[in-house]
Specification:
Radius of gyration of chain B: 13 Å
Oligomer: heterodimer
Shape of chain A: globular
């Protein structure tokens, strides 16, 4: 079963619009971590945020904000007043001790490609 | 400080050949991960090292894939008898410690093309 679902494959917005990227996850663990990474055209994954399963407080960092809701197993990401430099593929990822080996490897969604048009 | 580095950045090989991909993690990071990213997909976990030992190799697709980290720093991913389906970007990540959802820092990847 897919553990991280990013239903939006591609989104296009005009610069300065707000945009929300959806992420739904599936886990049976009580302890897990959620991440968002950005992958610009250059290809290198850039860490944006980590959230643990016990902290449901929303977080804001500049133009970025994240809404974590355990009741709906969602961890959505909003960019306010989007800019052209925000154009990238955004990945949501789940980290849990899936194999019992303590690795907490990341399980990624398929990503959402965001295009911000000037 | 230097980030995670990977060499080569690109590798083209023929079907059936052997390849080695190298990862140099951030200094002092004990945990090292390998992932594989196919076109249009998110990265998929291959193997995790804590120090010198492969603590979790559950993501390796078959026994043609092997990785080592003999001194607990640099790691090499080895692929024998390459197949066209092995073509992908191979990503390495390191974190200060393994487990507990520590932030993983990714390298730029090695793009492997098997002809």
């Amino acid at each position: 079963a897919q553990k991280v679902t990013q239903a939006q494959t591609e989104i296009s917005v005009v610069e300065k619009e707000d945009v929300t990227l959806d992420c739904v996850y599936e886990t049976r663990d009580t302890t897990y971590y959620l991440f968002w990474y950005k992958q610009p055209p250059s290809g290198e994954l850039v860490f944006l945020i980590r959230r643990n399963s016990f902290d449901e407080q929303n977080e804001i960092s500049g133009r970025y904000s994240w809404n974590f809701q355990k009741s709906t197993s969602s961890f959505n990401f909003t960019i306010t007043a989007s800019q052209v430099v925000d154009s990238a593929v955004y990945f949501c990822a789940l980290s849990e001790d899936y194999s019992g080996a303590g690795s907490y490897q990341l399980t990624f969604g398929k990503g959402t490609k965001l295009s911000v048009i000037p | 400080g230097a980030g995670v580095s990977q060499t080569p950045s690109n590798k083209v090989t023929e079907k059936g050949k052997y390849v080695e991909l190298r990862c140099d993690p951030i200094s002092g990071h004990t945990a090292l991960y390998w992932y594989r990213q196919s076109l249009g997909q998110g990265p998929e976990f291959l193997i995790y090292f804590q120090g010198t030992g492969a603590a979790d190799d559950s993501g390796l697709p078959n026994d043609r894939f092997f990785a080592v980290r003999p001194e607990g720093s640099v790691s090499t991913l080895k692929i024998q008898r390459t197949e066209r389906g092995d073509s992908a970007v191979y990503l390495c990540a390191s974190s200060l410690m393994g487990g507990s959802g520590n932030e993983q820092f990714f390298g730029p990847g090695t793009r492997l093309t098997v002809l």
